């Protein structure tokens, strides 16, 4: 959905922060798309007396950026200010979670999140029609609300969040695709169909905020429409001893990296740097070189138990970088003698045939493409920029 550029835009938006025992970094990049339609939220300390709570989210817009941007600015307030979120005034499911006041129960939080999504969707329909004459854009939303004792994973659409605990993927949200049996059943009950794995052959997600053209079936409630704004909310009790990190990302990331691959890649990067923005930048660059054609946004949230810098891992990384630099120089000179000056794609294809030790797991050679390119540019400074647009998919 949407047109592509001749060359990807690789400029990145970065941010980072810390508080409540958490550190986070984020990166977003337009990539091949003609417009940047992603948005994100990262808030340490929530309003309404929830200072020890935090909220992170990624919004993946489609057919425009209006809905994603509006959700980025207003969804959290719709969640935390609605009566369902505070209902019962309990103590967070068995004890006081905050310092100053009684806080919502687990069930109240889950109910309030659902209500907040339905409220903002209803509000946007009126707001966008009045301001934009009927906006056709929509957005998925994936988020995590962090309380001192619980993690609330929130998903509406096909963006995804995962939790790494004890050295492995402990939990990940389920994508809402039209081909899923329960999603297909709702779509068909609303008079629609699933063709080429899309709602009515057009929309690739079955739950989203906005997309009001798919929410006009008379006699059906908001959660019974062709596209539903209802989030799936899963609560997980925190484990101080084992929780490592969470990753939230749009499908531009997940299209080219599986859960285990991304988890392993992040873990390997955290062993060589504590700069979370840098780790996120490596993720989006690697996914671009793996062939992602979409906007890309990723938020990395680290707990105190996240992997720490390892001198052994740093040494291996330095040795790998030195080895790749030497091999690029050797390949370049060899091909210059045999066939003339090679282009970057030829160099990458040659490297791809070799068994290179200690490449980052999950990222593999794609994660080192920037290094290879920098060495190549030094050897061949007159090379045109055409190779900038080549993904790793083009290289083997």
Describe the structure.
- The longest helix is centred in the C-terminal third of the chain and has 29 residues, at 311-339.
- Strands 1-2-14-13-7-8 form a six-stranded antiparallel β-sheet. Strands 3, 4, 5, 6, 11 and 12 form a six-stranded antiparallel β-sheet that branches. A two-stranded antiparallel sheet has the order 9-10.
- A hairpin with a 3-residue loop joins strand 3 (38-46) and strand 4 (50-62).
- Helix content is 34%, strand content 26%.
- Residues 89-100 have low confidence and may be disordered.
- It starts with a strand and ends in a 17-residue tail after the last helix.
- It has two domains: 4-258 and 290-302, PPM-type phosphatase domain (Phosphatase 2c, domain 1), CATH 3.60.40.10; 311-395, Orthogonal Bundle (Arc Repressor Mutant, subunit A).
- It has helices at residues 66-81, 83-86, 106-132, 181-189, 251-254, 259-270, 276-289, 311-339, 344-352, 369-379, and strands at 4-19, 22-33, 38-46, 50-62, 138-146, 150-156, 160-165, 168-172, 194-195, 198-199, 209-210, 232-237, 243-249, 296-302.
- The chain is an alpha+beta fold and 396 residues long.
- It is globular.
- Residues 377-396 are annotated as: Disordered.
């Amino acid at each position: 959905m949407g047109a592509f550029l001749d060359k990807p835009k690789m400029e990145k938006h970065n941010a980072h922060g810390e508080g409540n025992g958490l550190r986070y970094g984020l990166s977003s990049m337009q990539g091949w798309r003609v417009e940047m339609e992603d948005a994100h939220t990262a808030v340490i300390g929530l309003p309404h007396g929830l200072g020890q709570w935090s909220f992170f989210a990624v919004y993946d817009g489609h057919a425009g950026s209006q809905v994603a941007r509006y959700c980025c600015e207003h969804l959290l307030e719709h969640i935390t200010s609605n009566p369902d979120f505070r209902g019962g005034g309990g103590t967070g499911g068995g004890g006081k979670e905050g310092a100053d006041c009684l806080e919502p129960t687990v069930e109240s939080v889950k109910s309030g999140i659902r209500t907040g999504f339905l409220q903002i969707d209803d509000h946007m329909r009126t707001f966008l029609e009045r301001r934009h004459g009927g906006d056709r854009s929509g957005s998925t939303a994936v988020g995590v609300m962090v309380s001192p004792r619980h993690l609330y994973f929130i998903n509406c659409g096909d963006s995804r969040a995962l939790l790494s605990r004890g050295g492995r993927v402990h939990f990940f949200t389920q994508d809402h695709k039209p081909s899923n049996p329960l999603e297909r059943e709702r779509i068909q009950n609303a008079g629609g169909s699933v063709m080429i794995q899309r709602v009515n052959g057009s929309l690739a997600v079955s739950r989203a905020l906005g997309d009001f053209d798919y929410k006009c079936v008379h006699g059906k409630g908001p959660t019974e429409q062709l596209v539903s704004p209802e989030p799936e909310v899963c609560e997980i009790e925190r484990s101080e001893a084992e929780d490592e990190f969470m990753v939230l990302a749009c499908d531009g990331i997940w299209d080219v990296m599986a859960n285990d691959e991304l988890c392993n890649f992040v873990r390997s990067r955290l062993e060589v740097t504590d700069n979370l923005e840098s780790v996120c930048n490596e993720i989006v660059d690697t996914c671009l070189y793996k062939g992602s054609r979409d906007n890309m946004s990723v938020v990395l949230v680290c707990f105190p138990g996240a992997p720490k810098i390892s001198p052994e891992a740093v040494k291996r990384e330095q040795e790998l970088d030195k080895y790749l630099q030497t091999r690029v120089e050797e390949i370049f000179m060899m091909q210059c003698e045999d066939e003339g000056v090679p282009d970057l794609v030829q160099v990458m294809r040659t490297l791809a045939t070799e068994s290179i030790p200690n490449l980052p797991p999950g990222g593999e050679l794609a994660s080192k493409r920037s290094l290879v390119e920098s060495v190549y540019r030094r050897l061949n400074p007159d090379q045109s920029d055409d190779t900038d647009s080549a993904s790793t998919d083009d290289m083997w």
